[in-house]
Give the backbone structure.
Amino acid sequence: MLNWVRKINDQFISYYLIVLFFLLWQVAPVIGWANPKFIPPVSKVLEAGWVLVKNGDMYVHIAVSLERVFIGLFISIIIGLPLGFILGGWLPKVAKYFEPFMNLCAQINTMTLLPLFLILFGVGEGGKYSIIFWASFWPILFTTMEGVKQVDPLVIKCAKAMGVNGFSMFFKVFLPGAAMQIFTGIRTGTTMAFMLLIGAEWLGANMGLGWLIRNSEDNWQIPRLYLGILAIAVIGLIINYFLVWLENTLITWRETEPESTN
């Protein structure tokens, strides 16, 4: 019985802090620990969410935001992955010349580039996609390059000795060898995409979770503001868990720790 309870506890222990956080969020404004005008109880936030769910607006905001995130992220993946393989695997000497410039670009805060994206791409969807692309592109590129560089040279030599080259080398050696780093880059890029979603949807948007947050701030609808923030956090967490599951499912050759015999 104790072992069963211990297993259940170990499985859910990471969620205890989340439960405690929401309990504190609910209680603090009620008992006066926080000003309910600025931090409303979580029940008020959920009530605001239920209103938007009933009239259908919440589904529209989520769908629009997910579309923007996925399009920007997709563009960063289809550019970042091939470029990372080329620079990390086939042209490492060229990569050395470009790395300082790429590091410089990656260090530029995306929020400071909002006016530039506004000038170059306008306030339409192109500007929003470009912001999300810029934020998610660099982690994908750098982790792919690093993953390719970490492929065992002995494996590459053995593959060449067996006549593997060109695209076969890519699919049979470099892609499996760098897969874990690639997933890490995509997960990091996804996190960055959701972080910049609010800024992207400030550029002339009239729907989306980022717009919901800004509109709620302008109209002093504080529960809806927290609702938008909470929705972005929950959706980002769900997508991250999905990517972890996908990684564990696809990368069947990852090294695992031996089970304890005690």
The chain has ten helices and no strands. The chain has one domain: 54-250.
